[in-house]
# Entry
Amino acid sequence: DTGVSQNPRHKITKRGQNVTFRCDPISEHNRLYWYRQTLGQGPEFLTYFQNEAQLEKSRLLSDRFSAERPKGSFSTLEIQRTEQGDSAMYLCASTGTGTNYGYTFGSGTRLTVV
Amino acid sequence: GEDVEQSLFLSVREGDSSVINCTYTDSSSTYLYWYKQEPGAGLQLLTYIFSNMDMKQDQRLTVLLNKKDKHLSLRIADTQTGDSAIYFCAEMNPGGYQKVTFGIGTKLQVIP
# Structure
């Protein structure tokens, strides 16, 4: 297992299009998080999964955003009708139980909406 | 409330020590972390400290925690050019979800 994998690394899309990102966490990690990072800011929490259950969503996650984690393995984050304000780095992280709960982050997907 | 504050920028000469400071507001935080982010990359966990500790040392890294003042610091000894990056302070909020709140990040510039 080489860590948390995110695809694609970069995505350029036209305003109004839908985009979907994928995250493959470390296989034994049951907790998965999505964060968004804009330029010059720290990561902001979007949503959290424990196994396949989505247990918390930030108010940042408008109804245009949806996330899934079928079977408790990989996760997808979809943004519908993208807006320029959605341009950001989308980071996925995973962690296991019984640890210091430190996250292992993927390299992120950089979204540019034009 | 959840809020983590850091200074934006620090410049040091190679070989000197760097000290990056952070304040947080949630006194019930259980774990506090330092993450490193290099350009175009995700965040890498550098070190962490549990809230019942006041110091932790890990090779060139020393973390100091002052719970009374809600102040966390990261000292990097013998700073190298490879240490140039953005350093994020973060706190784990208690509760069932181990959600972590990050600061804005401190950009460390190491001058050769």
Q: What stands out?
A: Chain A has a mean pLDDT of 92. The first strand of chain A starts at residue 5 and ends at 7.
